[in-house]
User: Fold these one by one.
Assistant:
Number 1:
Amino acid sequence: MTFQSKNLQLVQLLRGIASLLVVLLHITRGSSEILDKIFLLNFFSFGGAGVDIFFVLSGFIITYTSQKNIGYADKLPSFVKRRFVRIFPTYWIIISLFLLLQIMLPSFYKTHFSLDIKNILSTYLLFPGHIMVNGVSWTLSYELFFYLLFCVAFLIPNKKLSFGLAAISTVIIIMLPVFGYDYKNENYWVNLITFPMNIEFFMGILAVVIIPHISVKTSLAFISVGCITFLMSIGLYNLNYYFTADNFNRVIFFGIPSFFIITGIVKYELSNKIKVAKVFMLLGEASYSLYLLHLPLVIAAIRILSKFNIKNNILIHVLLILVVGIICYTSIAFYKFVEKPIIMKLNSLRRIKVANEI
């Protein structure tokens, strides 16, 4: 399963695209609900697919970057610390800012969040079913659950056994509805385990496993199949066509095509020199900040626009696209001046501590 690690620019590009899709989804919804205007013919109603891309990417990235350490229990503490630093400090800063915004300017951004200790702990620790301050943090609960499952791989010396357990977990999730199980009727903690979109994390793991065994020519076929099926899925999803229950439907429509695209582009880039424009690399690097920051900013911006009662449809579109650009720029700035320095500082402190212990 192990192959040479490399900084993958196309993966960063795809992260940027995924986060931008989610932004465009919320611009589309906000325009309809607040301005009573249709944004770009509601084409980006499928934008939630960005989350499906993120889940497959997460499974791939975690496995790809940790593949040499899998099976070594002494590497587990370092993995846990890196994941903690990557997720929580940025998340805590952003939700604290938005809680402050909700208190100070409730007319622009108001959630159902109440300031009791149980609610605060649940939200700050990303427990499943927590009250969301920014409307997107539910995905981080599943991300953390995947990290928890992945920790097991460090404790099992046999990598094939670890992959086998991941495959069995996938099969169980798929088979549960066949036996009449409805994950929507269970409590939040049970739902965390049985959630259909967990399959997408395992798809990312599978991508790492098969990439060394496919040719560059095959990678181009993977990219073609992934892009074609993704585009077909956009049409079906926007027409409200469903093969099966909603979240299983997302796995079929967007998870599977994402698996083919990611597998294909990674294999291709590992075999070829790729150069992605700096602005797109920056957007990919800032994708976590963009994902966490955008929704309250979108709502606030659209509510400000609604105050002007603009009737011209073209002008509304221009202003909404400008809002997207401003939010992307703000997120990149936040990444460069807040998120990245904090991560680097915390990681350097961790390295200093390890060095002192040695």
Number 2:
Amino acid sequence: MQRNDICEIEANDLTIEGKAVGRVDGMAVFVNGLLPGERGRARVAKTAKNYAEAELLERLSDSSDRVLPPCPYFGECGGCQLQHSSYIGQLNYKNTRVQGCMHRIAKISDDVVLNFPLPARQHFGYRNKAALPIVQGENGIEIGYYKQKSHELIDIKKCALLPEEMNDAITLVRDWANEYGISAYCGQTGKGLLRHLVLRYSAAGEMMVALVINGDQLPYAKELVRNLRINLPEVYSVLVNKNTERSAQILGSETQAIFGSERILEEIAGLSFDISLNTFLQVNHAQTELLYQTVFKLARVLPGEVVADLYCGAGTMSLYAAKLGAKVYGIEIVPQAVADAKANAAKNGLENAEFYCADCAEGFAQIADKAGKIDVVIVDPPRRGLDQK
């Protein structure tokens, strides 16, 4: 198989990036735009020893899962990969992916039945957080998402994954920047001011708008706040985050509130949380509550039992367990998250939760020694997984 060869491919699987996988003359070929069971004609774009990548030229058949993507940017924007699949098709894909990981990587026997994913009621407009790059386009400031594997930005007028109020905030910030001639940061030169727009929108109805800047001051800040507040009463907090580093990291270490406070109120499963720009939360609020309900249904936590919550973040699951009457020990290595967890415990009047700033491998041994015994362990580790210790 050579570059620019035309081949016919039948997709039989999807990668974690949403690319279709098929075989041509025994070689694995990856191509965007097909769903499992569909056939298409494609041009080979890249070859390697054991695989090839191709560009779809024509789809020759349609899967029963194929739907019309609701977003006009789909296929160009790198934010979504599976909008051309029905929701049940996406759930089937996730189920197959988890089954494969459990059997191939975890070596769990094929006769162990894994539960099907619990579906979401809301398929679009659900994200409670977005971090959007800002660039200088030909016609002014552009805010959106990058194309897949590209530094070319798509100026998004409306993202289907965001609530209407967050989309309105993007428009207001873009219009303000263009009206007052605010420059955008350029990674190649290190010049320009606006780097990212970060939005958070809580279930309590409070929105945070944060601009990440390459500098010390945000010009025309009062005008920005006025425009946001007049048009979006949901805006409770407007922040400026300073990041002057020549890196891909979004947030810098300094944050200042130019309107409201540096925190907004979030409500999860009857508990209240003050969340900051840096607080980690799941981006789908309804599914977060379903996730927590499922965890504690399986854990069967009883009053008086001892619970260890490892990698606890701001203590959301810790306080859920404390609300059930358990004695909870939370461990987290990020100092600000631990401070948030302690503050959230006090906010909810829960005195049966203690939080420690430590590496989980070391901290777990300490709390196990202090508690005497631990009845339930909850783990929500970062992507690299649990520490081997």
